[in-house]
């Protein structure tokens, strides 16, 4: 008895499935479905251009629609099958209310829509010339990028109202990464006007819908950069350091890049440099490898010029050498000592680091004009003024 009940239950389930399949597959009952954010397309903008006009703004950019039809047909609807348009033909400068037209696949009916018309503001047309730059989109490996992109044309004319045209920074020619590989190839791709942050600017059209981009995908790698110098700075000048990038990005095949752990720049010749100097770097690279943005690769040679200082020595601060026994000596003149040289040698000097002397060997009583000798610690250059002083020698 229990077994019969189980059999009956199974038969009932199978029957229900068959009935459902018949209703859905054969009868195909009608259903309704809501589709949201259907973009409003503005058509016949060329007619505005011919009249020296352009769209300035609209109050809405998309609408929602509710459609009805057979379940199978409704489920087949894809993005782009529903077209919502606003016709700009014959519109005037200022505010225009334009009815919306909804085009649907055959067998589908429009039950309702969120908006019946759109407010379009139209202004005077202006033009501008903007550069066209290639932009890679899509997924690429972390160490891969587009290389050597050449765009034709290099510039395009844009059309729109002054407010919108002024927002445009450049025109992007968008290249899908799927189109590229390691071999250089050329593709016609869609273009769009964008602002400085890369956001597309609405209600601006371009003189062409596509641009030709020639490019390839290439591997890149970040490696340390080594920079050294050759030659010597002029006397009194010191090298404070070289301001250069710590790393650079190199491009090439994965095989070539795998063998490179660092790169070296040609030595910078510092001979004759007397002030901070910006120098373009030349990098030593194996064949097939190049530096990304090599035209922006510079180093700055930072130098420090000579320093000077002055000290005054009174007569009693000047040392007297070679005085005979039984004699005394005095100096009434003072001496101005000037020092000059590398900042590291001069900036730390004090009066105690400088020795001013006169040598009176063989001189007897009386007044004598004696040369002054000056020495200083380090490599500073010293000079005394006056170069001689009057020494009075007396007997004790």
TrEMBL record:
<keyword id="KW-0472">Membrane</keyword>
<protein>
    <recommendedName>
        <fullName>YbbR domain-containing protein</fullName>
    </recommendedName>
</protein>
<dbReference type="InterPro" id="IPR053154">
    <property type="entry name" value="c-di-AMP_regulator"/>
</dbReference>
<feature type="transmembrane region" description="Helical">
    <location>
        <begin position="7"/>
        <end position="27"/>
    </location>
</feature>
<dbReference type="Pfam" id="PF07949">
    <property type="entry name" value="YbbR"/>
</dbReference>
<keyword id="KW-0812">Transmembrane</keyword>
<dbReference type="InterPro" id="IPR012505">
    <property type="entry name" value="YbbR"/>
</dbReference>
<keyword id="KW-1133">Transmembrane helix</keyword>
């Amino acid at each position: 008895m229990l077994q019969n009940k189980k059999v009956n239950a199974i038969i009932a389930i199978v029957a229900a499935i068959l009935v459902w399949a018949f209703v859905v597959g054969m009868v195909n009952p009608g259903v309704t479905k809501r589709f949201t954010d259907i973009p409003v397309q503005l058509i016949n903008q060329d007619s505005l251009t011919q009249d020296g006009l352009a769209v300035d703004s609209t109050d809405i950019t998309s609408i929602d629609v509710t459609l009805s039809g057979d379940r199978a047909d409704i489920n087949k609807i894809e993005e782009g099958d529903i077209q919502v348009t606003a016709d700009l033909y014959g519109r005037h400068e200022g505010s225009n209310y334009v009815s919306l037209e909804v085009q649907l696949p055959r067998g589908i009916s429009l039950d309702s829509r969120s908006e019946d018309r759109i407010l379009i503001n139209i202004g005077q047309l202006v033009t501008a010339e903007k550069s066209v730059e290639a932009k890679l989109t899509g997924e690429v490996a972390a160490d891969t990028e587009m290389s050597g992109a050449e765009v034709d044309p290099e510039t395009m004319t844009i059309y729109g109202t002054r407010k919108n045209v002024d927002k445009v920074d450049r025109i992007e020619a968008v290249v899908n990464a799927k189109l590229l590989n390691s071999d250089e190839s050329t593709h016609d791709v869609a273009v769009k006007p964008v602002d400085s942050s890369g956001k597309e600017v609405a209600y601006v059209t371009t003189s062409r819908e596509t641009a030709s981009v020639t490019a390839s995908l290439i591997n890149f790698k970040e490696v340390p950069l080594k920079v050294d110098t050759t030659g010597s700075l002029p006397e009194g000048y010191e090298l404070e350091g070289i301001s250069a990038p710590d790393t650079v990005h190199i491009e090439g095949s994965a095989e070539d890049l795998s063998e490179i752990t660092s790169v070296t720049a040609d030595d910078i010749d510092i001979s004759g440099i007397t002030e901070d100097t910006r120098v373009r770097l030349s990098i030593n690279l194996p064949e097939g490898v190049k530096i990304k943005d090599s035209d922006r690769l510079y180093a700055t040679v930072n130098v420090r010029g000579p320093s000077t200082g002055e000290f005054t020595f009174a007569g009693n601060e000047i040392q007297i050498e070679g005085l005979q026994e039984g004699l005394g000596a005095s100096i009434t003149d003072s001496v101005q000592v000037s020092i000059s040289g590398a900042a590291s040698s001069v900036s730390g000097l004090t009066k105690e680091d400088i020795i001013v002397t006169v040598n009176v060997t063989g001189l007897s009583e009386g007044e004598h004009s004696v040369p002054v000798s000056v020495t200083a610690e380090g490599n500073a250059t010293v000079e005394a003024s006056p170069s001689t002083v009057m020494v009075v020698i007396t007997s004790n």
